[in-house]
Structures are given as C-alpha cells and as structure tokens.
Amino acid sequence: MTQDEVRKGPWTEQEDVQLVCFVGLFGDRRWDFIAKVSGLNRTGKSCRLRWVNYLHPGLKRGKMTPQEEKLVLELQSRWGNRWSRIAKKLPGRTDNEIKNYWRTHIRKVSQEKKRTVSLPSSSSPALKDPKVDSITMKASGAESFYDTGGPEPSSSTEIKSREVGKKTEHAMDDIWGEIALSEEDAITPANEYCGESLWETQGEECKMLPRSTDSLFSCYAELEYLR
DNA sequence: AAAGGATACAACCGCTCCGCG
DNA sequence: CCGCGGAGCGGTTGTATCCTT
C-alpha cells in the first residue's frame, strides 16, 4: 500500500474532523479541491457524500416521524425515485436516508402482502428475494406500488401517521402547501427549487456550524486558533 | 445465552448533467 | 460546437445492530 492510495470504507473520527475543517474553510462545493488539499486520501465524491449524509449540520438523526414517513410515501408516489428532490421537502433528511427508508418500507410491504395473500399455487414470480424485489421495483416503475397498494391505509405507518399526524399537522402544512404549488413545475425538472431547502448552499459562504459533535466543535476552535 | 434472520445505516459505483475553455 | 472535468443523483452493496426463536 502506498501513501497516496485512495482510501475507501468507513470514515474515522479524525477524517471527519479534517473534512469539517476544510469544508469550513473552502465551502461545500469544490470537493475535488478539498479532497486534495485536506490530505485525506479520499475522492472528492467520497468527501461530498460524507459531508452531505453525515457531517452536514442540521441533519436530523434517528427515526423518521410518522409525518415524515407519510410525506415520503406521498412524494414518492408523485415524483417517483427523485430522492434528492424529495429530500428537499424534508428538512434535515438526506436523499440517502429517504432512499433507505423507502427500500425498507417497500420490502416490508411486499412481505406483508406475500404473507396475507399467500396463494398456495401462487404464480407470483416477482417476489422471490430482495434482489429480484428491487429489480421489479425498477422495472415496474416507481408508481407501481402505489397504484396497487395506494390509498388504502393498509400499512401500519399510514395508520399511525393519521393518529399522530394531527399534532404536527400545522408544522407540515407549509410543506404540503409547497408541494401543491410545485406540482405544476414538477414536469419541468429544470425548475428545481432554488433554495428553500435546508441544503441550500450559500456558495463560498458556508457558515454552518456543527452542533452536536464535540470533536467538531474542537475542530472549529482549532480553526479559530489557526486564524 | 447463542444463532440466525431482519433491519437500518453508511459508503461506493456508474451514469448524467452542467459549466468552462 | 465540442471535449473535459467536476458535481450531483440514483442504484446497489456491505456491515453493524437489533430482534426473534
């Protein structure tokens, strides 16, 4: 192994701190540059992914709320697998997170269906294993699930979200309103939202501060010191 | 208490898009 | 107009953790 071999796999805390430092310095756009100057033997891609999915301040961690789940399902049924787009409507959630949630959800639902239907002479070729599962998802198009399973509150999440939903309904109102509004330009992807999301990147001025991780704080302290 | 299965999460890969020279 | 490089997106895979038997 040579020194300049590109590193892969899990990030260490040290790497995280380093990345946060350099993103703080140079902003969150020039990933290749950051990858080089930071001394991390990572690709720019890898750096960006780590930042967006893990280090970005303001990320909500932990389980999705029923409202968020409902929103994901709703948006997915409208827009298909446009995860980044969906993520923009869910402040603090990443496309990766949503994608993962969706996959899990789909698998759960298809398993439930299999169980409830469980035709003995079933000629259902599609749902044999997770791999096939995902392939059929792809092949049949994103809407397929909702075409069939659609509006009926068969999933426990949906039922739950109705119960709990009322409380935070107001907080979600804006988002639903926005969705309704953006429905029209949904067809023209060129009109992607410019800026209402948490992810809005302010060009060079990336003045986001990490909140939760001690090491990240110390990193910024270190930065101050370096200045 | 151990084993096996299910689930959630993190990361990589390949493709596409976009801006720039 | 074309080619190139960087950034972003969606799909897929690997692994750690949790749950059930």
TrEMBL record:
Alphabetically ordered keywords of this record: DNA-binding, Nucleus, Repeat, Transcription, Transcription regulation
GO MF annotation, one: sequence-specific DNA binding
UniProt-annotated stretches for the region Disordered: 142-166
Keyword Metal-binding recorded: no
GO cellular component, one term: nucleus
Superkingdom field: Eukaryota
InterPro entries: EOBI/EOBII-like_plant (IPR044676), Homeodomain-like_sf (IPR009057), Myb_dom (IPR017930), SANT/Myb (IPR001005)
Pfam families: Myb_DNA-binding (PF00249)
Domain spans labelled Myb-like: 3-55, 56-106
Subcellular location: Nucleus
Domain HTH myb-type: 3-55, 56-110
Function: Transcription factor.
PANTHER family: MYB TRANSCRIPTION FACTOR-RELATED-RELATED (PTHR45675), TRANSCRIPTION FACTOR MYB48 (PTHR45675:SF7)
Protein's name in the database: Uncharacterized protein
